[in-house]
């Protein structure tokens, strides 16, 4: 049998040959992604897996979350977030993405491992500079109002009443104004977002309960596309709507119930039942890829421990380019000519730095000042005076040479940012 051409060197030893487009893209300045110092070229897409597992969470894998970035040649590409599982915020911050730039979040279904970080992130986003607008959350309806995305978000706000009122003493502005775009889960291939040269479509998946959905993004300017299936059983609808996509990401579960019983303690019978009613076996993931024919097939929402067996199961059907969407902060760059995977470098401690205002808009359009919003609910309106009167006198604990006046009341002049001063400070540090 004639061997396939191997662009990487000698003839391959088996039936798998890497495609010649598996190589660094123009934006890949290093074989480790070092955020935030790598502007994304126009016409280039970057995918970062900021969470990659349902259970159990580990140091290497947080709850499922994917960041899709569409390049524009600046440090601030267009960003879409798919699912927002437990622990993903840490990875997003370590990626160097500032909270106000996290806005459009697409929830595939309402299992908590796909949205658990929302109540944590939402108020801190508003506190961290997200004053002008709140989150925009896209998600499926249910078969009744209380099983849809709007209900989940409404109850999240209700659950957080104490937290939100407490933070209302701070400059929050419109940061809590969460907009929910709830789409009809039965509207297969319906459009849930269409703007700025991109279209996001959705379709229903079989995941025990009505409402689970998949997403496809088509970025017309670059002629690139991306699919995230969310969770669910392998289905003909996904083949139909994902066919020919550039990057196909599905969930996958290894058919290893006895092994997982030993590792996690869940009875083998429960694991088999869960796999057979909720999830996509790796064998099926490979079959889907063979039918869809993406430029790269990927699996997220998996456990790293079963990766070896996963590859064998996928390869039962798919001999094209295959990558794992994990562990956390796996980064994949995509152009029409190249696809490349790397890991991001992560600082042990996340650090958020205010961007240079000149990076955000043309210099001739910069305002002289940014006014920080006044508190919506001062503490005098939500706290008994006797509790404030118990506070220690600062003279008791501040040394005289570092003591400063307390800022316990909003003053418009104090809460105003001088734009030129911010620019001067950033450029002096640079």
Q: Summarize the amount of helix as a percent range.
A: 10-25%
Classified in CATH, the superfamily of the largest domain is Ribonuclease Z/Hydroxyacylglutathione hydrolase-like
| Largest β-sheet summary | 9 strands, mixed
Radius of gyration: 24 Å
CATH architectural designation of the largest domain: 4-Layer Sandwich
* Silhouette: globular
- Structural class comes to alpha/beta
**How many structural domains in the coordinates?**
2
Whole-number mean pLDDT? 92
Give the termini separation: 59 Å
CATH class of the largest domain: Alpha Beta
Please indicate the percent range of residues in DSSP E strands (runs of 2 or more): 15-25%
Task: Please characterize this protein's 3D structure.
The structure is a single chain. With 430 residues, this protein is α/β, with parallel strands linked by helices. It folds into two domains: 32-344, 4-Layer Sandwich (Metallo-beta-lactamase, Chain A); 357-429, no CATH class. Helix content is 23%, strand content 20%. The protein has helices at residues 88-94, 118-127, 149-159, 161-167, 236-242, 257-264, 268-278, 282-292, 307-314, 357-360, 385-389, 419-429, and strands spanning 32-33, 45-51, 65-70, 78-82, 104-106, 136-140, 179-183, 190-195, 198-204, 213-219, 224-228, 247-251, 296-300, 322-324, 330-334, 339-344, 369-371, 416-418. Strands 1-16-15-2-3-4-5-6-7 form a nine-stranded mixed beta sheet. Helix 1 (88-94) links the parallel strand 4 (78-82) and strand 5. The model has no long low-confidence stretch (mean pLDDT 92).
